[in-house]
Amino acid sequence: MFDDSRGHCAQINPRLLSSDEDPTSFRVVLLVHDECRIRATVFSSDTWEWLVLPWVDVPASSGDDERWIQHECGMQANGFLYWVYEDQRYLVSLDTATMEFCVTELPHCLRDSTFDIGKAKDGATCIVYSDQLNVGVLMHTRDDDGVEKWVLDRVVPLDRELERVLRVGLDDDTVLNHLVADHSDLSVLAVQDGYVYLCSIPSVHHDPQTSCWFLSLCLETMRLERLFRRTFDNAVHPYIMAWPPSLVGNYGGFALQDAQSLK
């Protein structure tokens, strides 16, 4: 992976590419970078071999850090893998069908924000970011010359929505006002199938006495829903899974044939 590298090199956390058609088939993608280039190394479960792709020149980072691509932040949507520069100035994308890289400059509104890339309900690729209690949505487009761009679609304040969801189960306005005042920011955790998963950030970080709420936001209606309150202080990532068979109900005395006889 590091052959012919220039200066300091680093490897970024591997990414898994699974196949919807054949769940037993998968690929693992490793991104490595030196001082000014990137390259991908791909493992295929079909061949059990690694393919090392050529180095690709990319724009220079404005930071002094030798690890100039975020290592803990990896995003995926519509057949593309994404990585972000540490200075959040550029976005690296890899087309998993052609294994070709593309680097696009990110809008200034993302420079100091948390954001994630995912799919809207119509399948379009979008970036959702947070700015204090506001949430913005950018859509992926191409101009007439084929240049990729991220265009701001909307910015929506969620302070009233946050107040509404925190009010659920609370009759004491004093407690409610305290809860709202304690949450000065929202952090984007993930964007999946038209929903944004958020975390409310207390004004006093890592304070076990201050509630941290995990929330979901529908991109179509921009309606916020409260999921659960933090009982730990660690990284989280939403995962959508099927109902466990034991909860579906089609077993034992609840099997379909027994249900028919009960009628």
TrEMBL record:
Database matches in InterPro entries: AT5G49610-like_b-prop (IPR056594)
The F-box protein AT5G49610-like beta-propeller domain, residue ranges: 15-246
Superkingdom assignment: Eukaryota
Name the UniProt record assigns to this protein: F-box protein AT5G49610-like beta-propeller domain-containing protein
